[in-house]
Amino acid sequence: MIVSQKMVAEAEKMCKQSSMPSTTAAALDVQYHVCVAQEQNFQIDVNVKNGSSPSTPVFREVRVTESVSADISRFESVVNCSETIKSAVVESSPIKFAPSIRSGSYADIGSRDSMEDEHIRIDDLCAHLGSLFKCPTPSAFYAVFDGHGGRDAAVYIKKNAMKLFFEDADLPETSDIDDIFLQDLENSHRKAFLLADLALANEQSVSSMCGTTALTALVLGCHLLVANAGDCRAVLCRKGVAVDMSQDHKLSYLPERIRVEELGGNIYGEYLNGLSVTRALGDWDMKFPLGSASPLIAEPDVQRVVLTKDDEFLVIGCDGIWDRMSSQYAVSLVRRGLRRHNDPQQSAQELVKEALCLNSSDNLTVIVICLSSPDPAESCPQRRRFRCASLSEEARSRLKSLLEGN
């Protein structure tokens, strides 16, 4: 794959453009439910008040207040992250830890005629890249791509992903992971998505009617960075609570709908020009010429978090999974499975089979990334044992008397 200087310059220009919600969106008083206990219909509301000015989305952590901690422990409530709370901070242990990474993946064609999903699973990024990029330990890289209009775009991006995200990327030189390093890494990932999109525009083997959604997850030491364009999803399990690390880019998501409408996108129900997503790589027959603001874009949302001992695993998957189950449903299913067999490969397969049982009509691809081992005390709860006691002859006689009313 050849990436020209013109393409790099165009990507850098696009990276500098702000992806913040429009002033119209900021002026709305939109109420997002960010914590729902399914069994009790109980919720916490976060309101965006008139005149608020959300910053560029940088997910760090999600705050779970003490008033709901009991409900979370009982019901494993869902924490949904939306555009308006991406800069919120989770109050959890500041002690950093080194994740113990292992993963498993599973894919199924489902009821479709062809398989258009692709994925990448690298548990040891340092060994994979060699001297190309000085990684902290541990380091890992994962990605899922959901193609549409054919599989060519997804196959192309998978084939060239390492070149786009690491070989050709303007990665920070320093090995110190500080705020400057992490911000540079975010910018590098945004640029990689845009370069991938431009590469598809110039790749003659890929039709202009073909495209793909994309989600990447990068682990560097105790830092997790997720970049997403489309409706694939990444969900972190934090002590049994599902924390969304990505936002589905669909017209049902209000900030995306407003952005598309302001740019004159053709909306038919929940579809943009026939697509169910508002962000994707490729699809150049639906995008405006370079330099013009298009309703369908490839710019990703990038979110990052500092991992702690409370973070158990990460699930990333294509929309065939999420169309049939909530983030919390998936997390709870995987968590129960890991506590039975401690095998992420088996958990990934169980998740796909559950989606099939729930009548998913799409291709299905999922990766389960374990960040720590299940607590042995919680994995194998001890069962209470009862000892059979025998009655003496005298006690048996007295009991018989009582029962007979003597």
Fold and architecture overview:
This protein is of the alpha+beta class and about 400 residues long. It has a single domain (about 5-20, about 95-230, about 245-380), classed as 4-Layer Sandwich (Phosphatase 2c, domain 1), CATH 3.60.40.10. It is about 30% helix and about 20% strand. It has twelve helices and 16 strands. Strands 2-1-3-10-9-15-16-4 form an eight-stranded mixed sheet, sandwiched between helices. The longest helix has 24 residues, at about 180-200. Residues about 20-95 and about 380-385 have low confidence and may be disordered. InterPro entries: PP2C, PP2C_BS, PPM-type-like_dom_sf, PPM-type_phosphatase-like_dom. It is an enzyme of class 3 (hydrolase). Pfam families: PP2C (PF00481). It comes from Xanthoceras sorbifolium. Its cofactor is Mn(2+); Mg(2+).
